C-alpha cells in the first residue's frame, strides 16, 4: 500500500518512514504543506498521514485543499496532544482518523491498517480468491490447508493484487503501490517478486491464481 507522509520534523519522519517500510508499506515523504497538496492531487495513494503542525500551509489547510479538489484518499491526522478544537476541525474537514503526538509506532501502524481496511469499502479483514486466503488482521496467507510464509514485501504485493482481483494491473501500477523507490524502467523487480510469489502460492496447488497478461502486467484470478 502506498502512503504519502507529510511531516517537516526529520526525527519523526525518518523513524516513521523506516518503520513503515519494514512493515511493507511504500512511503513517500514530503516536508511542506504545498508539496503535500500537489502530491495528493496528482498521484495515487492508498492513504495519507498528515501532520497538522507544518511551516507555511498547515495540515488542516492541506486537508481542506485536498478534499475541495475531490480527493477522497483516507487521511490520518497527527496533532499535538490535547488540542480538541484542532481535532474536531480536522474531522469536520474530512479526516478519517486522528492520532495525538507523541504516539507509539505500533498504534500508528494499527490505525493505518484499520483505515486502509475501512477504505476498501467492504470492511474486509480478509481477501479470498479460489482457495487462496489472505487475512489482514493475522497477516497470514493460506492456500487451502497449507499456510504460506511470505516476507512483508511479498505480503504487500499479494495484498495489492488480491484487493484488485480480476483486474489486470500494469507493472507501473504495481511498482507505485508496493514500492516507493524510483525505478529504472528496465528493472525487473516486479517480475522477480511475482516469480517468488508464484513459487510460494501456486506451486503444488491444483490451479494457478497469479496470471501473466502478456505485454500488460499481472492479474490474480481463480481458474475455477
Ligand atoms: Ca510537524
Please, could you describe this protein's structure?
Helix content is 40%, strand content 23%. The strands form three sheets. Strands 2-1-3-4-5 form a five-stranded parallel sheet, with helices on both faces. Strands 6-7-8-9 form a four-stranded antiparallel sheet, with helices on one face. The chain is elongated. It is of the alpha/beta class. It folds into two domains: 2-119, Response regulator (Rossmann fold); 126-220, Orthogonal Bundle (Arc Repressor Mutant, subunit A), CATH 1.10.10. Strand 6 and strand 7 (132-135) form a beta hairpin. Helix 2 (33-42) packs parallel to helix 3 (59-68).
Short description:
By secondary structure, the protein is an alpha/beta fold. Helix content is 40%, strand content 23%. The chain has 2 domains: 2-119, Response regulator (Rossmann fold, 3-Layer(aba) Sandwich); 126-220, Winged helix-like DNA-binding domain superfamily/Winged helix DNA-binding domain (Arc Repressor Mutant, subunit A), CATH 1.10.10.10.
